[in-house]
Amino acid sequence: MAERQELAPRQEGRPERTPRRRAMSPPVDVYETDEGLILLADMPGVTPESLEVKVEDNVLHLRGEIAEAPGEEVRPEYVEVRGREYYRAFTLGPEFDQEKIEATLKHGVLRLFIPKVESERPRRIEIKTVQ
Alpha-carbon distance 129 to 131, whole Å? Predict the structure, then answer.
């Protein structure tokens, strides 16, 4: 079963969502900066066309289908990847601006930037000298 991580405290009374079919859980690294979160998900074999990233009810869903094998005439000798799909879900807290999430996919790594809302970002206060 796919794993779900929380990036915000869990809200009681909310039902768990499950993916449509059995999927592999891609390994994910999450980094926090002053501006927001950087999320890196390893999803080898996924193309931009077969990748879906969406936010629904404060839950970030990552779903990607693995591209087909080299061809029907080719039979694998050894297989470690058994699934055909990746799926992961994360609960987003109110400190993140869901409308400005940026996503890129390069060499099988999905990179998301989830910015913090402006009021949650630390800011430096200028110190003025008085004469």
Answer: 7
pTM, 2 dp: 0.71
Q: Out of 48-52, 70-74, 76-80, pick the least confident.
A: 70-74
Give domain status of residue 47, yes or no. yes
Count other Cβ atoms within 10 Å, centred on residue 92.
Answer: 19
How many domains does the chain contain in total? 1
Decide: residue 96, CB within 10 A, 0-12 exposed, 13-18 middle, 19+ buried.
Answer: buried
C-alpha span between 19 and 54 (Å, rounded): 13
For residue 31 the two structure tokens come to 């980094």
> Domain of 90: which CATH number?
2.60.40.790
Structure token digits, residue 79: 């297989």
